[in-house]
TrEMBL record:
This is 2-amino-4-hydroxy-6-hydroxymethyldihydropteridine diphosphokinase. One of its GO terms (molecular function) is kinase activity. The lineage of its organism: Bacteria, Pseudomonadati, Pseudomonadota, Gammaproteobacteria, Moraxellales. Its EC number is 2.7.6.3. SUPFAM superfamilies: 6-hydroxymethyl-7,8-dihydropterin pyrophosphokinase, HPPK. It is an enzyme of class 2 (transferase). Residues 10-108 form the 7,8-dihydro-6-hydroxymethylpterin-pyrophosphokinase domain. Pathway: Cofactor biosynthesis; tetrahydrofolate biosynthesis; 2-amino-4-hydroxy-6-hydroxymethyl-7,8-dihydropteridine diphosphate from 7,8-dihydroneopterin triphosphate: step 4/4. It comes from Acinetobacter higginsii. The keyword Acyltransferase does not apply. It comes from the Bacteria. The keyword Kinase applies.
Length: 144
């Protein structure tokens, strides 16, 4: 556990029972610290094989360290019924970046380059140059 709080930039996605899985994820993430969620966007599957995804982002401020958060996120995915590999994703939550302030964040090298379905919701919360995308692209916003 950290002595100070860390900000985690998280990407969330689901293309199976999205409302149920996002409700579960939001409740669980809120129990880890202070959270701010982006709007939820409906974005087509990256490879065109699976169903459209609900994608959102979260800024989580917590005293947990990055390894603890990553472990918790994998457990949440498993609790939602996540099966790997599959194009039917009940819940995917990834740590995209972390740091003490939004001006001093470290990107997760395992998640680079960032996909459009990560950039769009995360840019709503954190206007970092690496998250910029062609603003003329519009996807439906989901209301839960």
């Amino acid at each position: 556990m950290n002595a100070t709080e860390t900000i985690f930039a998280l990407a969330l996605a689901s293309n199976v029972q999205q409302q149920q899985n996002f409700t579960f994820a939001y409740e669980q993430l809120a129990s880890l610290g202070t959270v701010e969620f982006s709007p939820i966007y409906e974005i087509p599957c990256r490879d065109g094989i699976g169903a459209d995804y609900w994608n959102s982002a979260c800024l989580l401020k917590s005293r947990l360290c990055v390894d603890e958060v990553t472990e918790i996120l994998k457990k949440l995915e498993a609790q939602s019924g996540r099966v790997r590999p599959s194009h039917h994703i009940s819940l995917d939550i990834d740590v995209i970046a972390w740091g003490e302030t939004l001006d001093h964040m470290q990107f997760n090298p395992k998640k680079l380059p960032l996909a459009l379905d990560v950039k769009i919701p995360l840019y709503d919360l954190w206007q970092h140059t690496d998250l910029a995308y062609l603003q003329s692209m519009h996807y439906p916003v989901i209301t839960m």
